[in-house]
Structures are given as structure tokens and as C-alpha cells.
Write a structure and sequence with these properties.
There is one protein chain. Helices cover about 40% and strands about 20% of the residues. The strands form 3 sheets. A two-stranded parallel sheet has the order 1-6. A hairpin with a 4-residue loop joins strand 2 and strand 3. It starts with a helix and ends with a helix. The radius of gyration is 14 Å and the shape is elongated. By secondary structure, the protein is of the alpha+beta class.
């Protein structure tokens, strides 16, 4: 979790300086998979993609235009149909 949001901070800083970013979300657990350390069910990678998308919407490049992200999900990931 910490890594996901540290990366989001870095994403915002890159976009603020007119850069683009790309991420592979394939290592994240599929939707509703049990997280043994907490006993809760996981969010899908799609949920985190939406968080990154929302942050990107509000950090304008040079104060003028939306930043650019590219999200990847491997074809073998259980959430690939939702992604497509």
C-alpha cells in the first residue's frame, strides 16, 4: 500500500513538471481476493487505476493541461476483462 501511494506522489510531481508516466498494475491482487494479513478482501487494480486517474486530472502540466498516464494489465490477470 505504501509503495502504491508513494508512486502516486511521484506521479504528481512528474506531471507537474510536464512529464508522462506509465505503470504495470499486474502485480496487484485481483478484485476481492482475501488479504491474509488483514482478513479483508482486496480492491482490484482497476480501483487503483481510478485513483491515479483522478490525481492526474487535478495536477495540470504547467498549469494548463492534464497529465498523461499509461496503465498496463497483463492478459493473464484475472481482472483483464474489467480492464478492457
Amino acid at each position: 500500500m505504501e509503495g502504491i501511494f508513494t508512486t502516486l506522489i511521484n506521479t504528481a510531481l512528474i506531471h507537474q513538471n510536464v512529464g508522462g508516466t506509465g505503470y504495470n498494475f499486474s502485480k496487484l491482487r485481483p478484485n476481492k481476493e482475501l488479504v491474509t494479513s488483514s482478513g479483508w478482501k482486496s480492491s482490484s487494480p482497476i480501483a487503483f487505476m481510478k485513483v491515479y486517474d483522478a490525481a492526474t486530472e487535478h495536477v495540470k502540466q504547467g498549469g494548463k493541461r492534464r497529465g498523461a498516464n499509461m496503465s498496463i494489465l497483463n492478459v493473464g490477470h484475472p481482472d483483464i476483462e474489467q480492464f478492457v
